[in-house]
């Protein structure tokens, strides 16, 4: 008993000694330098990595960082929201959706994890959390549905391969590694289903061999390697660069505040077809600011964004205060700052853009990753829920669907369509759509099918080579859109800047009010009716056509006003001269009479 008591007192003393370190680990102590992170990498079980072992475990960023930081608190961060909780994010938040895209099948289905209007939740389409993780893990830093226990324990849905891959844990280095992080390697390893080792490979600590993707769903880790494929059809294997480990098996992790390059790996946007040297980029980044200067968070990793007003209009804001000389106040009541100051297209003209999340730009390698599907256009000016006009990126969904009662639409997975064996020879045409729809009907005679695309519902008429498709309006074909916040342009390049000024928007045929937005989609020979910009603005085209016409007369009106003003000045001067003459005369008479 005495021995046990001594042991308990020793354990208690050790625990108390560790308390101050635990309490101050996540708190700033006044130092002005980032501490050197020379620490021992840990695996998923919390054991120290032995790089020279024959089959070493991959690094767990969560366990490694948890030696000093409260990684449990980070689980609720903005980048790790799962959609499995009702309070993850308000449904009114308009952010870029994810797109289940397949160029071969003309598919671009918008998906959301928190109920965004116009997008489907993965479960509505039968997508499991594991499938979502494989499809989109390339563009988020792990965690979330990739490692949430509720997702990993999920049994519903097709192709549950958590047993093969394990969870895709939070990858702290994706945001915090200062140099040498390879986001393309992260994407490749996630696609190969090497979830456990993806962060290790991307960080450069080692290489990950094998492909879990090629293993059977019933793979048994106790079974010998595949006799026909010793290179790829084998489970992932981590091979560490032992030169990066010291004698105590510690590594130096080059970490710090996220750099803008870390953010742009998943949040970049560029106009389709532009060359790299023609991209100006955000004016804030040009002036030395970083993304995290405006998008801040604490140890809980919940982002709080500084608005344009906070910096540029509030008295205590750090940014320069604009004067906006000559701009009526109504513009600031009805327009978001981004209407004039943001967008990636040249001169703010409407054009197709590609994003890292939707179009997989920024992933490099021998294989071509980037795709034009989904087709996204910007800027389309939309009146938001607060009644303000803002520029948005907009995409129209496209997919084959089964039609139910009351015109309900249920999207079909691209794999379902691919199984029909229908292929377009050179392009995705109306004839291909008709052929697929007839093949779906032959497979399920009692069903009805259609294709959503270009803002319309397309259905087949006729059979065989005589089949054609006709289009009609349908609510499910409405576009999804999300606000443009970047790239911010300097004032001299803003919409309405000199010499154009008011005429940039206020004419009888201005692109801002009267431009035609053409719904996009994969059918190359589709006849599509453009949508007037005023429909998205919720404004009267007749009123603004008349109002815009008045601006053409304003130069003459100004000349007229200045002429009238000049005449009034001359008249007033003449009256003043006469009055002055009479005043002088009266003063003279008064002086003479006094004398």
| Total count of strands | 20
Could you name the ranges where pLDDT drops below 50 across 5 or more consecutive residues?
Answer: 1-24
* Oligomerization category of the chains in this entry: single chain
> Which range best describes the helical content: under 10%, 10-25%, 25-40%, 40-55%, 55-70% or over 70%?
25-40%
Structural domain count: 3
| Termini gap | 130 Å
Q: Mean pLDDT, rounded to whole units?
A: 86
Envelope shape: flat
Strand order of the largest sheet: 7-10-11-12-18
Radius of gyration: 32 Å
Structural key phrases:
disordered N terminus; 3 domains; 20 strands; five-stranded antiparallel beta sheet; 595 residues; alpha+beta
Please explain how this structure is put together:
This protein is α+β, with helices and mostly antiparallel strands and 595 residues long. The strands form seven sheets. It has a five-stranded antiparallel sheet with strand order 7-10-11-12-18. The N and C termini lie far apart (130 Å).
